[in-house]
Amino acid sequence: MAEAEINRETELKLAAKPEDFDRLRAASAIADRASGPAATRTLESTYYDTEERRLAARKVTLRVRKTGDGFVQTVKSAPDEDGLGRGEWECAVTSAAPDLTLIADAEAIELLGSLSDSELRPVFTSIVERTTQDVTLGEGDGAAVIEVAFDRGRIELPDGRSTDLCEVELELKSGTPAALYDLAQELAQAAPLRLEMRTKAERGHALANGSADKALKAEKLVLEPETTVEGAVARIVRACIAHMVANEAVTLAGEDPEGVHQMRVALRRLRSATALFRPFIPAAQYLWLVGEIKWLAGSLGPARDWDVFGEELLAPVRDAFHKADGHGRSAVEDLDALAAAAEAKRLRAYESVREAIRSDRYTAFLLGVGSWVEKRGWRDQPVSEESVRLFQPVIGLADHLLNKRHKKAKRAGHGFAHLPVAQRHQLRIALKKLRYAVEFFRSLYDDKPVRRYIQQLAALQDALGHLNDVATATRLLHELHDDGSRSAPGEPRAAGIVIGWHARGVADTEAALVALWHDFTDTKHFWSKPDAGV
């Protein structure tokens, strides 16, 4: 049996409802595999940082936990790219105050940096009732031992503010990380669960800072030249899922339209990645992935469309008429009525978004993708010329794929100045796929020419995106009352004003758009010419 790495914590967190704890504990996934009795204890952990939150900025955690009659000090590193593992170093201390002089491990000392005890302040405390149970999955050398912890409690600030927490932690004691997903998938059949990517420390710092959840763009992906094709697949898929999940909370709140936008970007990136690596993915796996991505993207799409319509298309027209000092007063009233109807539609769309994110299907999708990556599910195929390439360096394949996507985009835009709207939309899709491929592989190349290429690509994408938004607006306005609601008398007039306003704007920018296309086609690509045999 493989032992979990020393000074490593490998765990999967699942948010749960308190009323489901008994059902989860009794589930056969735990009850039939339990080794030894369950144990319950109260854990009180105080988390420390500097006034400027230097540790939190690097996602480093320093806490002191009261354990019976003693105290244990723990340093944790930022989570690994798989979201499961991170470094962990523990030592006994004499009180609830940290003592950095007792930390002996060089890596932990380096993580903390030039920090002294006097700079540290208690930021928050977690008080949790934890019930743990060890379970064993599998037999013999392939067996895995997992500690299942049912945590229920709160995170509390010194000023009394607090937030509740209720989660199931699956911590790998021995075996492979894929076993965590196997157990999580079984538990999700017993009661509703959601994947929780945030650590207790991250939630505590958010509470302490009084900061609302923020929309986050994708972090820059780093691949090394020696990274294999399958290593690149794993990192890219993980990065897309992490990007999506990081925007869950702000999307559920529904106050910042950037949240649902970033979730959709993450899904498009994931869809693009699966298409990019399709030759290496067995057909059944590919169809499942694409099917789930389409379902979720379809659930998020209407909310994003109404956000764009309200903020980027309707708002500037309303503002212009409102500033007209009484001129066009009836038009103002009509535009206000249209805005109210559009907002009602947007709010209903966000209810559908929340329903999708909180669904069992969404959790099953995340756990399924996580398991697929950990198990390297794409290896489940006959040995072939394509499958053998999974173990070759990705750099040669990257050249080939970038060249292929670039050529497709140029073909899609041939005769750009005379392309109809529908074909420009197809060009926009081709450019998106190209851009995602560039972002996936950019760390393999010199950054300056990559950055220049992305700038030209992004400028053209943005301009074509506005064209698509105007076209989408026409469709949305036809759907405004497809739920049976009644329209205000002036809404059709207001809709005509909005469409006419932006149609004129599109015509005025046509010359600039054509120039952007030529700038893009003239941009020198940064990758090497691929070998003919790649």
Automatic annotation (TrEMBL):
Ranges where the CHAD domain occurs: 226-525
Q: Locate the CYTH domain: which residues?
A: 7-211
**PANTHER family in alphabetical order:** INORGANIC TRIPHOSPHATASE
Q: Mind telling me what this protein is named?
A: CHAD domain-containing protein
What is the native source organism of this protein?
Azospirillum melinis
Q: What is the lineage of its organism?
A: Bacteria, Pseudomonadati, Pseudomonadota, Alphaproteobacteria, Rhodospirillales
